[in-house]
């Protein structure tokens, strides 16, 4: 098992035990996207996804919990807020159809 796999497992444990319950209390959730070196990339889901407090949730709940449990084992905690490929494809198709209808 590599160091990254070990760190990934520890991050997943903290998310499952500390972070996810706090987010679910407010109708949200979290997904671990990847661990690269010491950097942790996560995506907020559910009600947390578009919440105006998402950045403070990241700092207080996610980063705070990970730092409290893992300390210097982790580097940056990055909020991944990219739009899914499926949603982009849907939007492209939708606008192509709309454009074709208006011509």
From TrEMBL:
Pfam families: NifU. GO terms for biological process: iron-sulfur cluster assembly. GO terms for molecular function: iron ion binding; iron-sulfur cluster binding. Residues 11-73 form the NIF system FeS cluster assembly NifU C-terminal domain. Belongs to the NifU family. PANTHER family: IRON-SULFUR CLUSTER SCAFFOLD PROTEIN NFU-RELATED, NIFU-LIKE PROTEIN 3, CHLOROPLASTIC. This is NifU-like protein. It comes from Tannerella sp. oral taxon BU063 isolate Cell 8/11. The lineage of its organism: Bacteria, Pseudomonadati, Bacteroidota, Bacteroidia, Bacteroidales.
